[in-house]
């Protein structure tokens, strides 16, 4: 039997069937027992958790009834076989280490600490990536935190998660993978804007990526936030790092990398490189239902599926792909590989196929000194290593079909999920899925998760208006929620009033280096600098159309130039003052 606490509470029977624990009090009882798995929880604490400081007179008798109901739910045929046991002063649930995601998470984090102390950075990173992949949302999500003790328990789990994230980012930065951590750090900072360690890591990653000015600007943003919200200066370690960056301290340069430990699949290690599932993911049920069968076609012959998920900037392609990959991971027992190709990441150069292959080959057991130099040789070696295996590969943020072709396996059994702003139609054999904005209902549900139902239910109309002003795009919704979370005194209506001025809307929908404007500018720059004249014409048209007060403009392919010849004159006439009467 499998129990999950790192996200919504769920129970899976040994047969693989989901066990529904539907009664609220029974769910709460199970959650409290699982937070102290394999230890006795006193009856007094259980009564306090289920009824609060003023329990009903029959609380003790009712507790026994709820325990019996829980046993019947977990083992309907024979409640006596349920893992819920009675002690002299309370109850306890017996769970093996691999039967509860919380226990597995703690074990993997401890294993990562031991590997880090032995100097095995790559192995430590692998343990942390596997541990963090267990999180499907917030700890105890959906469980009412009825007591201060239970709320503190949930906060302790979340803090342990953040600490693991920081250790993983430390390992990546020390391994020279600073560029790929910048975007991830900015995402975590948007959720935890006062977590100084994350800011400190962001400053170091930016500095090592040759972005000294950005690193210093990040320090200023942290300082302003701390003074405004808490009234304190940054910690001594953050101030010291700022001074070292100002002085261009040579010791801050990327340290010399020793050859990483070869981690072999044959030795039992199976890569689990999928990024963290987004805790605030909502909606997309129809899209997930359509996509999952595409990754695991039935029948004796299983062709290599390549699914390209494409859509506009900020529509949530990466979050959807990660959720899809996690839901499908059980069909790929030999592990998952991941790389962010940064095909449309502001300020970050795209990852060459040769570098991506090098990372995967090291993960699959090839020593750094044995890596081929030629990209075609690396691709051939990679195809050989994954042949006859069932693996799942996620290629995030791809720019072109050419950038991903060397990364595709050559044999059936391994599925590939690709996210891209444009459909990669010229990729042989690929399946396309277009992702559009969220529905108004899903957008409202996302805001409930991001800023809390206590604030959204007070202003339902303003919350719905906020979702509409964000065009129901997950990126914009996250940025708007980050503004509200960082300023508890603001109401939803206050932010809506600021967004109503469309001249400043893009300025408002930004936090740190993450913003809607940055996301749009990458696409515009790519079109403007393209070798294709139609792309350059589209970029010019986009700028000119910005002067028109329209939300949709349809243009058939091949008509760019003709339209552009007429558009400037039309704009000039539209902006001329009216003739005198």
TrEMBL record:
Q: Which SMART domains match?
A: AAA, BTAD, Trans_reg_C
Q: Return the protein name.
A: BTAD domain-containing putative transcriptional regulator
Family recorded in the similarity comment: Belongs to the AfsR/DnrI/RedD regulatory family.
**Entry-linked Pfam families:** BTAD (PF03704)
Q: Where is the OmpR/PhoB-type domain?
A: 1-95
Which PROSITE patterns does this chain map to?
OMPR_PHOB
Asked whether the UniProt record includes Transcription regulation among its keywords, one would answer yes
InterPro entries attached to this UniProt entry: AAA+_ATPase, AfsR-DnrI-RedD_regulator, BTAD, OmpR/PhoB-type_DNA-bd, P-loop_NTPase, Sig_transdc_resp-reg_C-effctor, TPR-like_helical_dom_sf, WH-like_DNA-bd_sf
Give the DNA-binding residue ranges. Answer: 1-95
Q: What are the protein's UniProt keywords? A: DNA-binding, Transcription, Transcription regulation
């Amino acid at each position: 039997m499998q129990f999950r606490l790192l996200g919504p509470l769920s129970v899976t029977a040994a047969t693989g069937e989901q066990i529904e624990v539907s009664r609220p009090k029974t769910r709460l009882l199970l959650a409290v027992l699982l937070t102290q798995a394999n230890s006795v929880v006193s009856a007094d604490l259980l009564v306090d958790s289920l009824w609060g400081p003023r329990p009903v007179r029959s609380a003790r008798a009712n507790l026994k009834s709820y325990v019996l109901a829980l046993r019947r739910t977990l083992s309907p045929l024979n409640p006596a076989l349920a893992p819920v046991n009675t002690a002299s002063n309370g109850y306890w649930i017996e769970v093996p280490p691999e039967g509860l995601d919380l226990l597995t998470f703690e074990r993997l984090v401890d294993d990562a600490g031991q590997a880090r102390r032995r100097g095995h950075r790559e192995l430590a990173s692998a343990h942390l990536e596997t541990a963090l992949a267990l999180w499907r949302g917030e700890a105890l999500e959906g469980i009412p935190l009825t007591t201060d003790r239970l709320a503190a328990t949930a906060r302790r789990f979340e803090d342990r998660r953040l600490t693991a994230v920081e250790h993983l980012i430390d390992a990546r930065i020390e391994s020279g993978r600073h560029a790929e951590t910048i975007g991830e750090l900015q995402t975590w900072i948007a959720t935890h804007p006062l977590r100084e360690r994350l800011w400190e890591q962001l400053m170091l990653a930016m500095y090592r990526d040759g972005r000294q000015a950005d690193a210093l600007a990040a320090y200023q943003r942290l300082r302003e936030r701390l003074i405004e919200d808490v009234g304190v200066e940054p910690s001594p370690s953050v101030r010291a790092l700022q001074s070292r960056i100002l002085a261009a301290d040579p010791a801050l340069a990327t340290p010399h990398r020793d050859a990483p430990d070869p981690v072999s699949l044959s030795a039992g290690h199976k890569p689990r490189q999928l990024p963290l599932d987004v805790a605030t993911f909502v909606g997309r049920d129809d899209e997930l239902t359509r996509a999952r069968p595409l990754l695991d076609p039935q029948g004796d012959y299983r062709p290599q599926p390549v699914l390209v998920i494409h859509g506009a900037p900020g529509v949530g392609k990466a979050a959807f792909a990660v959720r899809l990959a996690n839901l499908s991971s059980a069909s790929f027992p030999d592990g998952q590989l991941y790389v962010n190709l940064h095909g449309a990441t502001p300020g970050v150069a795209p990852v060459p196929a040769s570098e991506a292959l090098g990372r995967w080959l090291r993960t699959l057991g090839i020593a750094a000194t044995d890596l081929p130099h030629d990209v075609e040789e690396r691709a051939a070696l990679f195809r050989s290593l994954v042949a006859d295996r069932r693996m799942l590969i996620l290629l995030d943020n791809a720019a072109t079909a050419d950038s991903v072709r060397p990364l595709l396996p050559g044999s059936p059994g391994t599925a590939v999920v690709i996210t891209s702003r444009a459909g990669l139609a010229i990729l042989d054999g690929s399946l396309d899925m277009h992702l559009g904005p969220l529905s108004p209902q899903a957008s409202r549900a996302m805001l409930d998760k991001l800023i809390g139902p206590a604030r959204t239910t007070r202003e339902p109309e303003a919350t719905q208006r906020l979702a509409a002003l964000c065009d129901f795009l997950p990126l914009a919704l996250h940025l708007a929620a980050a503004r509200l979370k960082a300023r508890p005194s603001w109401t939803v209506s206050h932010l809506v009033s600021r967004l109503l001025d469309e001249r400043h809307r893009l300025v408002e929908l930004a936090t740190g280096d993450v913003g809607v404007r940055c996301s749009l500018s990458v696409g515009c720059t790519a079109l403007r600098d393209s070798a294709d004249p139609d792309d350059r014409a589209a970029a010019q048209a986009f700028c000119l159309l910005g002067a028109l007060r329209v939300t949709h403009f349809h243009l058939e392919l091949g008509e760019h130039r003709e339209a552009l010849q007429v558009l400037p004159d039309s704009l000039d006439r539209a902006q001329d003052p009216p003739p005198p009467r």
